[in-house]
Amino acid sequence: MKPISIVWSEGVSEADAKETISAMREFLRFLQGVALEQNIGLAPILLRPYGNWVLNDKAGWDAYHSFRWYWESSLDQETGQVSAATLFEIVRYEPWQHAEPHLVLALLHTDLCNDTQESNGACPSVFACTEPQLITAISVRHLGHIADRELRLKCLRSLVMHNFGHLVGLPERLPPADLSAHAPGTASGDRARPCDAKCTMYEAQSIDDLMSVAAAANPGLALCSKCRHELRSVVFSLHFSVN
Ligand SMILES: [Zn+2]
Question: For residue range 199-226, what is the model confidence (pLDDT) as tens digits?
């Protein structure tokens, strides 16, 4: 698998950054475990916590010299929201991506809007937005309203593991349960179904929903049988792809 850079904007706390890295390590251990069950030994997957990085030698660069530049370039000053579409395009075409393809997990202290798809009206504020095999951006802003520190970190952990799953290729919607019903080939067909609340890939619909899922969750990553099946496919593609 490509190495994974972890970056965060300056308003993200050290505790949140640490929890995020710990959650990603847990996901990668789980992934390695799924590989071993199939007698596949995956090469170690590199995590690179660059944080709120700044290039020491800017050498006249106007762009790409710090994560702050990425953040500011994607920020709508009026709404205070980061545009996921803009951030994703910057990461897609940055020189570092060209030099060495990698995945990115970006933590943001500001609100995030998902403008990656056409929509009418205001840009929806989201916990996170992901483009598989490129970047997942997670906003910690909504979590700021949770007074209980432990619960807040649990919610963050859930968000990170969930979105990391999408980053490595776990789908938004699972194929229909009834495969005998001549289901369409796409996972986005009408009969696609979401995961239930016991699965890490369950999509929380609100902050209350996220809190109740995180509070009820046993420690650790938990995937439903469908998601486990999907993760096995991810492991196979990692093992047999050239990169
Ligand atoms: Zn699931």
Answer: 999 999 899 999 999 998 777 899 999 9
Ligand 1 centroid to residue 60 C-alpha, Å:
48
Residue 84 neighbours by CB under 8 Å, 6+ apart: 74, 112, 113, 114, 115, 116, 126, 129, 137
> How far away, in angstroms, is 177 Cα from ligand 1 center?
12
Q: Which residue has the tokens 């910057």?
A: 90
Handedness of CA 24, 29, 32, 33 (dihedral sign): negative
Which class is 4-173+225-240 in CATH?
alpha beta
The residues spanned by each domain of the chain are: 4-173+225-240
Q: How far is the CA of 202 from the centre of ligand 1 (A)?
A: 6
Q: Coil, strand, or helix at residue 238?
A: helix
**What's the pTM value of the predicted model, to 2 decimals?**
0.89
